[in-house]
Amino acid sequence: MDQHFLTPLFAPASIIVFAGTEEERANDPAFRDAASLCEAFSLQDYKGKVFHLDVDTSEGSLSDLIHSGSDLAIIALPPEEALAALEAAGRMRCRAALVLSTGFPVEMAAEMRRVARRSDMLLLGPNSRGFQRPNLGLNAGVVGPMADKGPLALVSQSGALTAALLDWARPNHIGFSTIISLGPHTSVDMAQTLDFLASDPQTHSIVVYLEGISDSRSFMSALRAASIAKPVVVLKAGRKRAGNVAARTHSAAIVGSDEVFDAALRRGGAVRIRSFTELFSAAQCLASRYRPVGNHLAIITNGGGPGVLAADRANDIGLEMGQLSQESINALLPQLLPNASVVDLIDLSEEAQPEHYVAALQVAAKDANVDGILTIHTPKRAVDMVAVAEAVAQERSRISKPLISCLMGDTSVRGARDVLRAVEIPTFRSPEAAVGAFSNISSFYHNQRLLQQTPPPLSNMAKPDVEGARLLLEGVLAERRQILTEMESKALLSAFHIPVTQTILARNASEAMMLAAQLGFPVALKIDSPDITHKSDVNGVALNVLNAIGVRDVYEEMIESVRRKQPQARINGITVQRMASHVRGRELYIGVVTDEAFGPVIAFGAGGTMIELYSDRSMELPPLNQFLARHMMERSRVSATLGAWRGANPVNHEALEQILLRVSEMVCELPQLREMDINPIIVDENGAVAVDARIVVGNTLATARPYQHLSILPYPAHFRQEWPLRGGGHYTIRAIHPDDGQMLQELVRGLSPESRYNRFVSALTELSPGMLAKFSLIDYDREMALVAVLEEREIDEQGEVTEHERLVGVVRYVTNPDSSSCEFSLLIADDMSGKGMGSRMMRSIMDVARDKGLREIIGLVLTNNSNMLKLMRSLGFSVKPYPDDPDFRLVTYQL
Fold first, then answer.
1. How far is CA 352 from CA 82, 263, 381, 410, in A?
2. Peptide bond preceding 623 in cis form (omega within 30 of 0)
3. What is the rounded distance in angstroms from the CA atom of residue 253 to the CA atom of residue 673?
4. The pLDDT of residue 103 is above 90
5. CA–CA distance from 191 to each of 130, 156, 180, 212, 731 (Å)?
6. pLDDT at residue 827 above 90?
7. How many domains does the chain contain in total?
8. Is the torsion defined by CA of 135, 137, 140, 142 positive or negative?
9. How far apart are CA 5 and CA 122, in angstroms?
């Protein structure tokens, strides 16, 4: 309850090592890993107990260990012996096992997982290269010598990359809290490892090398929880070109899995990097413990050329120049040489001395227009580079903003480079690399804003006809169809209040002429067939048909052309619709694809018949809110045309945002939705209308819990309830929201010392920023927090009445690793005690846990907290002594 469930694996108090005999390690190549492991143990200062055993040792000599058990068993044996060692570790009641190996087949890996599960053991491996915990003096792996101590954690799915990174880290003064090499078949996966590192106090930043994920929901949940606590940088292998010739919609054809992964990382609050070299840069910056900032970079240089290179690179990757305010310029110029310049760049001139760098650093550090600082040093004959570096290093502790350095050259700047590295200033050899490193820090700040967005599944707009939409889809699936007709597609959009053009199906030329006359000319004619993916490819679209004769001729020619080019296609008829009258409208598209790993994804970009050629799309994982929808639009290239453009008025951005929000509602409420194109959407200053739509659906697994098809669980707005307050009035119980952070802080500050101690078992007077983020910004899949909120009125001296919310209670649970139980906590404002709020909130959180499928809720209560123990008994909880600490009682309830 205090320790993470992976503690026996990554922080063991005792270890049993299965590494064969000394003779086998010396002579048998199959025991190469065992030899490396034993050598590592001989060189380290691990303080726990270590037992070396042989699998073939008789049962009698193992009897003492069988009864005493151990935290961790490390197995470094050939495949034929490793399974027997794992069985022995289970009989010895080891709590975790590490199998160091390569080349174990999938079948043996599956059998090892079954053995570990049967023995209730955590299992890292097989095909893992182990881990290091430098702060514990523990090198339980074969990826190289013990790394230096530091705040950076590395978790990798590649043993070779792990070894390379560690080999690079030592001479570059990068230290680690943890290094973990997972391997492809391990039971302890990436999500669980991220969860452990998020709670590890020695870890300040996390670097991840990822080749694939098996469970997107658990990965996203763990990633979001980790990113809330500390910076996470991810290098993902396996990038591939987007495009799928078998796709049934434009969106599925142009949206690739790698782009979806980008979108997932943004919503997870992490930063994605794209090269091994960039990983090293990110590692340097994260090891320096720089926190999130904006994207305005000030460049201080003693050479104009390198400064311009840095500025060009900043412009290429979307960074802004941190230009000094006029007040800062006035303060700085008198301290610089006469030929210095502070326009855009801070060019100190070639004769700049240490004091000039210091003056520029001090002014830039205080300027509100600057989020980070890059100092560029080029060797000059009359300048002592080491002295410059020492001056910059002395300012390091006084500057709260990211400070990055570029030392151009080699031999003449080695001493200066060592000075900067000694104080953990990230140092690079080229201006472009330094700017890229700052971009990683800036991206983290930006993605943290995305992480804080927790939209509900439905917006605040008019409620859609969800039941009608479901009935429509059920009818299509009952007919064993997957592709909706254009009429059905537009009916589905209309159910979610997305504006569409009126469309009517004609089954012959006479009907088409009659319908066109009723709708009014000009009209558009389109082939209606479930077997034709792109109508234009078979001449299945005709626009601006001006009269009845034209309608008749186009109808007959279109039917003939389609039958000739695609004779097997089923033809329902031809749809007739009036041409949209948006003279200067822009053609856009909004699409939906279902990614194999992350589920549904929403795409936005330029539309029309050349959509694949434009290849313009931005993506987000649902659910969306207005902030995410606007951000999504801004990231597309077509956004440049949505303002005033070549005589056209700016488009109605609000109308576009509303369509994106409506599509998000569709994705959340309709798990049957597989692919969708709304293309084109024509938008101008008056609004937006969907001209054409193609929707693909499929059967989905029935589930009692909604939104299980999404990678990010929406804000659970359906938990909101109103309850009467004993003594008069009422209060609201709802799920916590990131915006509740300040109210939560005020609740804690207003508690008595006794109440604070009963909840936090400490004398804290307020929550730290990290605790506040952890408690208010949660992932609703792995935990839940309900808050009680009162509406209070205040009357000022002028008699003005103001209303504000006050948070008066919070109850939460966190799911345990067994996924069947959870641990709870409860906090009620002192002035609300005795009003029935605690009982009501506990029943509410128990209902949520029960709906989640959990079977048991447990908690720890201080033995002298009589009021809480009384409440637990009244709710039917079992109250027992807690074996690990007599100051607590263990309370449990079977849900």
1. 64, 44, 11, 20
2. yes
3. 16
4. no
5. 17, 12, 13, 12, 37
6. yes
7. 3
8. positive
9. 9
pLDDT of residue 583: 64
Whether the CB-CB separation of 562 and 571 falls below 8 Å is answered with yes
Contact 206, 155 (CB under 8 A): yes
* CA 67/CA 304 separation, integer angstroms: 72
Last residue of a domain, one of 442, 469, 497: 442
Spatial CA neighbour of 443 closest among 566, 568, 559, 319 = 319
Sequence-distant (≥ 6) Cβ neighbours of residue 706 within 8 angstroms: 457
- In a domain? residue 363: yes
The token pair that represents 507 in the structure block: 């089954």
Does residue 818 or residue 714 have the better pLDDT? 714
pLDDT at 500 > cutoff 70: yes
Q: Are residues 1 and 135 in the same domain?
A: yes
Count of CB atoms within 10 A of residue 851's CB? 14
| pLDDT value of residue 243 | 44
CATH of the domain at 420: 3.40.50.261
How many of the other CB atoms lie within 10 Å of CB of 365? Answer: 16
93, burial (CB in 10 Å: exposed 0-12, middle 13-18, buried 19+): middle
* pLDDT at residue 584 tops 80: no
Helix (H) or strand (E) segment spanning residue 735: strand 730-735
Residue 134: which CATH number? 3.40.50.720
* Cβ pair 305, 259 in contact under 8 A: no
Pairwise CA distance, residues 470 & 151, whole Å: 51
Q: Give residue 38's identity as a one-letter amino acid code.
A: C
Which 8-state DSSP code applies to residue 806? Answer: E
Domain limit, last residue, from 411, 442, 473: 442
In a domain, 567, yes or no: no
Residue 78: pLDDT band (50, 70, 90) is confident
* Chain centroid to CA 542: 44
CATH of residue 749's domain is: 3.40.630.30
- Express each pLDDT in 111-150 by its tens digit: 999 999 999 899 998 888 999 999 999 999 998 899 999 8
Q: Coil, strand or helix: which one is 271?
A: strand
Residue pair 451/224 in contact (Cβ under 8 Å)? The answer is yes
Token look-up 């070639």 returns 350
Q: What Cα–Cα distance (Å) separates residue 523 from each residue in 356, 514, 541, 550, 800?
A: 71, 12, 11, 10, 59
List the domain range (segments joined by +) for residue 885: 717-894
Q: Is the pLDDT score of 452 beyond 50?
A: yes
Whole-number Å distance between alpha carbons of 774 and 228? 7
Indicate the helix (H) or strand (E) that contains 20: none
Helix 431-451 crosses helix 216-229 at what angle (to 10 degrees)?
110
Q: Is 614 exposed, middle or buried (0-12, 13-18, 19+ CB in 10 A)?
A: middle
Domain presence at residue 9: yes
Region 175-195: mean pLDDT is 89
Question: How far, in Å, CA of 534 to CA of 531, rounded?
Answer: 9
Whether residue 472 is contained in a domain is answered as no
Share the mean pLDDT of the chain: 87
165 and 298 in a single domain? The answer is no
Tokens standing for residue 368? 């509100």
Say if residue 733 is in the same domain as residue 868.
Answer: yes
Order of strands across the sheet that contains 503-506: 503-506, 573-578, 523-528, 541-545
769-776 and 741-749 helices, crossing angle to 10°? 120
What is the model's pLDDT at position 244? 46
